[in-house]
Amino acid sequence: MSGRTQWRWMMDCAMEQDLRWRFSDEEIALTPSRVAGVSAEEETSRVRAAARLIADAGVAIRVEPVAIGVSIKFLQRFFMLESVTSVHPLEVAPACLFLGCKCQEQAVRAQDVIQSTFKLRTRCAEFPEGEEIMVADPRFFDEKQALLKAERDILRVLNFDLEVRHPYKYLYDLVSSMHGNQSPSNNLISKQIMLVAHCILNDSFSGTDVHLRFDERDIAAVAYYFAAKCIPNCELSSGTYRDATGARHKAWHEFYTSDMDAVEKIGDAIISMYKQDQEKDQRQVPAG
């Protein structure tokens, strides 16, 4: 098998595995939680709170964004098969982060995961920054046992299927192609687009369910579009420009032959996410 043939075979296998974890609107409307009588709003609130816990704890212990995204995808997949009434998402979140780091071969100690997530989970009036838990604390052993048990439960529910496609690589290839085949680190506009688009993708994992519903290439294309719109002097290719040789430059949505209906839905979900965050911030601003 030639190198190119092997690469295409690996890509086809990854695509097939990813399709197994892509859900329709009808399937999302009939999750185990909905069947158990939990409202859509309550289920979404619980799962997204756990996703934010993963994101915040991951940043605190310097986990790479890709590993954080993979961890949140494990969480979302888990609750497509299990109800939030049988296990609280906040109890599963630390194990998802621990497992996601393992899958991305990022060395993270169980102790760091436990301490960071425990601190975030225990924020209250008495402990505004959260409570510290030391290894010598009797509660630490219980937390560690709960982490390992939850990890086994995740592996069982997901049937050890830990293959995850993420949008970051697709974003890099798209930006490189759209801006002169230069590495984004060597091109100022490309670098700016990558920074903004990365932030959008990071937020999309914990603030939307688009990674359960759509192709990661389409999500990367939407993140690129929004990021490019934010960068001054950055022109999006419309697909009509031709260079001196007569070759036509592809439009941004043609690079991965994106499904425009999916692109529109992804865009709406991301816009809605930021609008909700903005409204939440406005409600928290004290009057007067």
TrEMBL record:
One of its GO terms (molecular function) is cyclin-dependent protein serine/threonine kinase regulator activity. InterPro entries: Cyclin-like_sf, Cyclin/Ssn8, Cyclin_N. It holds the Pfam family Cyclin_N. Coiled coil: none annotated. Residues 41-162 form the Cyclin N-terminal domain. One of its GO terms (biological process) is regulation of transcription by RNA polymerase II. PANTHER family: CYCLIN (PTHR10026). This is Cyclin-K.
